[in-house]
Specification:
The chain is α+β, with helices and mostly antiparallel strands. The protein contains eleven helices and four strands, in the order ααβααβααβαβαααα. The chain has a four-stranded antiparallel beta sheet, with helices on both faces. Belongs to the flavin oxidoreductase frp family.
Amino acid sequence: MLNTFSNETIEALLHHRSIRRYKNEPVTRSQLELILRCAQQASSSSHMQTYSVISVTEPDKRRAIAAWAGGQRHVEQAPVFLVWCADLHRFDQAVAGAGGQFEPSLEYFLVATVDVSLAAQNAVIAAESMGLGAVYIGGIRNEMKKVAGLLELPELVYPVFGLCIGVPDEQPDLRPRLPQEAVFHENRYNRDAFGQTIEAYDKTYHTYASSRSGGTKDTTWSIEMRGRTKYPPRQYGDFLRDQRFKLDDGQEDQDD
């Protein structure tokens, strides 16, 4: 049934994979501008457009960010490296210029984070349609304050993730996704089949991991997710508060 509706866009989406190795070929300025135009056409809450994108081209800055992100060499090597920022600074300036006053609540924080994520996904789809590859770099949040200082981010702006883009020099296997019944619900959140769907997915993921490693990796999705919980939490609450982001709902408990 799916093939009945298949087209180039759907095929591109179904074959997405993260690319970390790139050929020594440039991404042209025209390509980058078109990618960013596509990013700007993403949906945005109330047309607020609360994001900014910073292209990092200076080698020293690339090296610093790569180190802070956990030693990810592709941050240094990719033809294009973009830092996607949630940005309420521009919105604040516009409101003030119109004679208003802005209080950055948790809702606005969430809006800006969603806005930048939607825009970046549009950019990835556009890049892949041109034969390019990309990978998100969430590791920049390891040292959010340092990244912000390096890029001279003003108040009400924070770096959400990086994005490497270039001509692929690898063709990794597609990583299997959870069964659709594990993520799609009708009318209510249904936990009844989770045990079965996770068990089935663990078997699928085990086969994938084993084949990718030549049989040396004995793991499942659940085991890898357990490993994720052992990572030390990223500490950036104080930095975000310094940037004027309010991380509570602004409501105080009141006695009856």
